[in-house]
Amino acid sequence: MTFQPDGSVSSYSDPQDHLLAAGWLSAAHPFDQGATGEPSEHELFCDRLFAACRSNVVAKMRGYHFCEFCGPEAVRDAAAPSGWRVLDIVEERNGLKAWLGNGEVRVTEPSGIRWTAPTMIYHYVVAHSYRPPRDFVEGVLRGTFDPPATI
Ligand SMILES: [Zn+2]
User: For residue 129, what are the contacts with CB-CB under 8 A and spacing of at least 6?
Assistant: First the structure.
């Protein structure tokens, strides 16, 4: 995944869309860490973000990206050309599973400002204590997610 600074205009999408980037992390760049708010607000943020990364995926890509911080975890797979296959990032919450790393979620703040984040952002939050920009957190808590892409 290509690094984009938090809060910068996303270079992955049409500049006219003016989407701000959140969670486009890279192992080469430090990132903010910590809870996004009081424990109950952090839980609500994680619940809403997980639901969106599971059900509101847009800009889907072929294949999956692995987490640069965990590194690729490979398993033997006779069907793969190399004989090995990199495991997908799968997160569970409240008994549901989400396969992360193959698309984006987009959220519009009540003010109209729009954000785009890779679905991997949920993994970064729960596994690596990543703390997204405050305005993105507000958007997730009070804003509206784009509907899922149909292709
Ligand atoms: Zn990771």
Answer: 33, 34
Mean pLDDT by 10 residues, the chain (151 residues): 90 85 94 96 97 93 77 77 78 94 92 94 96 97 90 61
> How many residues are present in the chain?
151
Query: Could you give the CA distance from residue 80 to residue 87 in angstroms, rounded to a whole number?
Result: 12
Ligand 1: distance of its center to the CA of 111 in Å? 32
* SS3 at position 5: coil
Specify whether the CB–CB gap between 13 and 19 falls below 8 A: yes
**Contact yes or no for 100/63 (Cβ under 8 A):** no
CA of 16 to the centre of ligand 1 (A): 32
Distance of CA 140 to the CA centre of its chain: 12
